[in-house]
Predict the structure.
Amino acid sequence: MTPRGSPIFPALVTGLRAATIPLLVVSLRAGADTQAVLLLGFAALTDIADGWVARRLAATSVAGAYLDVTVDFLLVSAGLATLAARGLYPAWLVLVPALVFALFLLSSGLRTPIYDPVGKCYGGFLVGVVVASLLLLDLAVHALLFGTILGLSAVTLIARGRWLLMELWPRDQTNRLRP
Amino acid sequence: MRPVTAISLVVALAAAVLIVLTEREQPRPPEELNAIASGPAALVVYHPGLSDFPDSVVRAFAGGLAERGWRVRIETASRNTPVDLSQFQLVVLASPVYWWMPARPLTNYVRRVGDLGGRPTVVLLTAAGQGDRALDVMRRLVERRNGHIKRALVLYTMRPNDEARISKVPNRTIALELAHAAGAAIPPSR
């Protein structure tokens, strides 16, 4: 049996990503967009690294997975909120990832596995949206990014919402088979 | 379906919808400012775009012109926009910058006009942060159509419009102030 490593190391890597959140907000508020892009790049690297470290040390844990997703959520929410404060996106857009995150928490304890074609990439996609918003300074591109956030959020909300409803109100499978 | 496929499909769908929306004409009833004044007349032709920012900038600029004594007629760029400029002494062409280019309804309008008759022409663009290429396109278009560029101005949503004031005043407010000041800086001339 392989000895399990300490989950503290992957958590530390995730913690580094959490530490970028206030720096990101300060950079975006100051209009230091290049610095903000570099911080998001660093955050993306830690997102890859924490999973790798956890697997390498055989230190994967449920708590670590939740911490990872929570930090991702806080990072993209902070990025989108600051861009909304700069007038780039409407303020209510921040509620969309919050709703997705809430549904993720609700649906993560389900007994049946969920088919969500977007969920796994959702956090990374939103980080990409914030980076693209800062690098591609065009009104149509920003509208495209806005529309894509709404579209992908709808996909993941429908996928997870459907599974959640099926879990809460399961159909009687035997009745369905009767003629 | 793999995540990359799902994301690509949503991006492609959103892009298709956006291309249609950004290139679509948005005709609105014409408006007049300072209509009873005896000053020279300015024609403002603009494309409203997807947000209220271009519209607000155009109104701020037109307000500045009216304050200075111009009679101002505001039209949206469409097939129905008048192409006879004989009664106007100034032409203002305004558009948001989409896909790094001026909106097609406005460039199509300039092509329909054909000859600007050497008229002083103002180009007023609104962009997220990269508007130089679109400004070059508009300059060349106006000059090729025998227009005389009186003023060219790009106002931004993301890039600071005034570095010195950006920490104290919202960028949008600065943009509207600059647009108004630019309009008010053009003296009436026949």
Chain A touches chain B at residues 31, 86-88, 117-121, 125, 137-144, 147-148, 151-152, 155 (CB under 8 Å). Residues 174-179 of chain A have pLDDT under 50 and may be disordered. The CA atoms of residues 72 and 123 of chain A lie 6 Å apart.
